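Z., the sequence and structure:
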Amino acid sequence: MSDVWGIDFDQVESRRGGLIPEGRYTFEIDKCQRDLNSNGKPYVGIWAKIIGADDDNQESIGRIFYESRYLSEKAIPYTKGFFEDIGAAHILHPTKTPADAEGTVFDADLVHKVSKAPDGNTREEQQLQNIEPIGSPEEQAEEEPEKEKKPKTSRRRR
């Protein structure tokens, strides 16, 4: 083995980039932070790790889906809606930060969409649809399991 790289690639698991296959996934917010884009416009970057997948997409578990939400006047209602949809509306409180969304768990369909760029070229993008909040791991642990309901019996009066 050559040590030109200074890395033992035999000990590294291969990963591929590109689009995550379409399907139903369970995501956990791994990282969420506010930043500025190259034009100085504020946005929130969301890194959601796939922690569950339908049977056809088990190989996608562990991959990261990236979503960005802008904070312009026109975009804020959509950003708010996204955080409400995933079950992280609590971070919209003035005392909270985007990092407070980390650990939030939600289910969603990941679909591919073809869009046209300003230069006229088309590109395939990933989008989340049919989002259902599950909550944070702490909230899930706090939830009590539903008590088994006893079957109702009818009593006849005589």
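Confidence is low (pLDDT under 50) at residues 146-158. Residues 7 and 39 are 37 Å apart (CA to CA).

Let me know what you think.
H.
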